[in-house]
Write a structure and sequence with these properties.
Layout: H1 2-13, H2 27-53, H3 59-83, H4 92-122
Length: about 120
């Protein structure tokens, strides 16, 4: 019961886009919803980074962005492993928390890349 209370506090303190997923009554529905949000935000990220890399940018910046994005993905995954460290990895709760975290990381990164794209476009 103590662990359940801790998880409820963690979930209620998370202010990210997945809040609506917790309106579901069953953890399997929460997980399904979170997977959909994750896929949606990952696609938004891929579109944004793709539009930058396919645009008219210098090769030096392009090479730097490719390395930076690879490092960012690794950092985001490790951050989210840390975020859900105290939850048993084989549980649905772990999957939900990890997806919730990675989804929020993709949202943040997409916002950053949108600003970067605007800055790049201003120099064209």
């Amino acid at each position: 019961m103590k662990y359940l209370l801790v998880l409820l506090v963690i979930f209620s303190s998370c202010a990210i886009a997945s809040d609506s997923c917790y309106e579901n009554k069953f953890s399997s529905d929460v997980l399904s919803c979170q997977k959909q949000l994750y896929e949606f935000e990952k696609k938004n990220y891929e579109k944004r980074i793709g539009s930058i890399l396919e645009g008219k940018i210098q090769n030096e910046l392009k090479s730097s962005l490719i390395v930076t994005e690879k490092n960012w993905i690794e950092l985001a995954e490790n951050d989210c492993k840390n975020y859900s460290f105290y939850v048993e990895e084989t549980t649905v709760t772990y999957e939900i928390m990890n997806l919730e975290c990675v989804t929020s990381k993709y949202i943040e990164r997409t916002e950053f890349l949108s600003g970067l794209k605007e800055m790049i476009d201003s120099f064209e």
